[in-house]
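Troubleshooting entry. Yesterday's outputs looked truncated, so today I'm pasting the complete records for two proteins to confirm everything comes through intact. If either block looks cut off, that's the bug. Protein one:
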Amino acid sequence: MAIRMRYAADLVLSPIGFTVERFLANSERHPDLKEKLSAVDLGCELLVAGFDFAGDGFIFTVEHPGDVRSHTFAGWASIGSGANEAINSLLRHSVNYTMELPRVLWHACESKFRAELSEGVGRHTVVKVADGAGKMDAYEASEALIDNIRGAWERGGAAASGWVIGRLQSELERHPGLHKGDNEN
């Protein structure tokens, strides 16, 4: 919040020769400035995911004007200009923490590819799996595999899911602890 306030002060108060202190001392005389300061947006969103000391996963977002929202129960979140496309895709497939990991990864890729239909979303895609033991890169899909998944999705959409899920399952089996029957990671 302090960073946002400094930015707002630089943007709104500095050009008219006010400091934050001077404004606060006279804020009742300048309701228009108060409104302008409140409207200042840093123009960024954050998505944070990780594990606590007990190994339990968490995910949250931080949005204007500093609102923190937990998405831990859902187990996923999306931000940015393609968020609606991605979220709709994940909801359509009822993605949740009980789903097998290869299926979750397929739907995560699919949601990312759908988000690319939105302005400002690039094609570069990174797929990583973290585990509760503190290893944040327990598995990372190769660029070639992501290209194959994208190609299968572009050619066959949902019909390609069987091939992709099978391929992801065999990839994950090479990484101990990631090929459990349910998605514990």
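Protein two, checking that the full record survives here as well:
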Amino acid sequence: MNAVKRPFIEHLEEFRRRILISLVSVIAASVLSYAFAGRILEFLARYVDRLIFISPQEAFLANLKISVISGVVLSAPVILYNALRFAWTALEQGEKALFAAYFASGLVLFAAGALFSFFVAIPAGMRFLLGFSTDLVRPYISVSRYVSFVGFLVIAFSVCFEVPLLVAFFTRLGILSSDFLARKRRYCVVLLFVVAALITPPDVITQVLLAVPLIALYEISVLVSRAAEKKKRG
């Protein structure tokens, strides 16, 4: 019984340690980002004419949100590294040579998701949503809500772009297979549209702009899964 409990407790301690390291990284990066919150806001606000705040504390809270969001983005390498280090315990010793490839791929995918969201999805979504303004109904956008809108989309897209990495990892574990992914393609396409609808604002443009890359990433995941299977057999 003790022999069974000990590995579980060790894994739990390792998990706690990785979480704490990631949290410390986010906090440190957030504190550092606060000094540049004004400049970051100017960069984020490039898709609107002006932002307003409707309560005395809103501008301050918006700066805090910017700091935390920037902290999460800047800490992505640390978070990904610790997540992979913890997950790597499930793989055999001989497979640990792939760690660098997984880590580099994860960073590239995260950056691709962030860039796609900010330079493609967000401007397209803003054009669509602000297109409903008229002489009677004019947009006065709250700075806090705008920061939440942009920050959520950037992080959501960045995380969703990690799908091929997750598929490759689960394939190495034998949980997924390329045949399974190919057979369930139709169901997964529907599921991806549902996921896109749930995690994006309630407008068609941003939902489609997330769903389409997810479908493309799913197809890439099938190829990645086949490559992982071949490498595992080899």
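Both blocks look complete. Sanity check on protein two: Residues 2-233 form one domain.
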